[in-house]
Amino acid sequence: MIAENLAEVQNNIEEACRSAGRDSSEVTLVAVSKTKPPADLMEAYEAGVRDFGENFVQEIVDKYDRLPKDIKWHMIGHLQRNKVKYIIDKVSMIHSVVSLRLAETIEQEAAKKNLVMPVLLEVNVAEEDTKFGLKVEEVLPLVREISAFPHVKVEGLMTIAPFVDDPEQNRDIFRKLRKLSVDISRENINNITMNVLSMGMTGDYQVAVQEGASMVRVGTGIFGERKYKDRLES
Ligand SMILES: *Cc1c(COP(=O)(O)O)cnc(C)c1O
Q1: Per-residue pLDDT tens over the stretch 205-223
Q2: All residues at 6 or more sequence positions from 205 whose CB lies less than 8 Å from its CB, including other chains
Q3: Is the CB of 200 under 6 A from ligand 1?
Q4: Residue 229 is assigned to a structural domain of this protein
Q5: How many angstroms separate the alpha carbon of residue 133 from the centre of ligand 1?
Q6: Is the pLDDT of residue 234 over 60?
Q7: Is residue 86 part of a domain?
Q8: Is the CB of residue 77 below 6 angstroms from any atom belonging to ligand 1?
Q9: Residue in 123, 113, 124, 197 with CA at minimum distance from that of residue 150
Q10: What are the pLDDT digits (tens) for 115-129?
Q11: Which domain holds residue 199?
Q12: Is residue 230 part of a domain?
């Protein structure tokens, strides 16, 4: 089932690319595997997936040990500063940087391991009260501050669009994030690139791809519904 779902998602991405005149090699599918058992991830892995998205620190730590080492783990969930140290040498990208303080902690922990951590700044484009993330106008000032950090590299932006019935309702959100990334790249800030736009989930990834997403984060569409019942916040 997972392999079939995956093929369907990949087809949809290709179709969205065609309709927007994009090459599908520009879009990385991140399979969001939070709450799912390692066996499910292995099914996706065997079907070719190497990029997995996780929200909880403890789950990344556990799965990192149990699954193949060529997997790229993406931290996409809210990250507490005191937990950065547990994942700093396990993830290939942190999508959810929302403050200078968090960036400072990532800088300190990355320095200890002598690595440079690629990060995205999470933007709450719709300014929903229920979501973490920077306001649009806060992003450029933060990018400038982080540009001085030797062990953190801002590579782009991420957003979680609102839950909507019709994905067209989020098109404007994706356009705004894209515009923000273009505006920032025009500033030519040292040590900063804006090559990554992480946007689009199961409900709206085709629209996000049409609007320029370079990473889509799809969970339910690949692994099926999640059960949160028994899990604790990490
Ligand atoms: C859970 C999650 C996803 C995947 O959501 P689906 O609707 O299941 O595709 C993507 N991004 C983030 C940040 C998430 O927390």
Answers
A1: 999 999 999 999 999 999 9
A2: 9, 12, 13, 16, 213, 216, 217, 218, 221
A3: no
A4: no
A5: 15
A6: no
A7: yes
A8: yes
A9: 113
A10: 999 999 999 999 999
A11: 2-223
A12: no
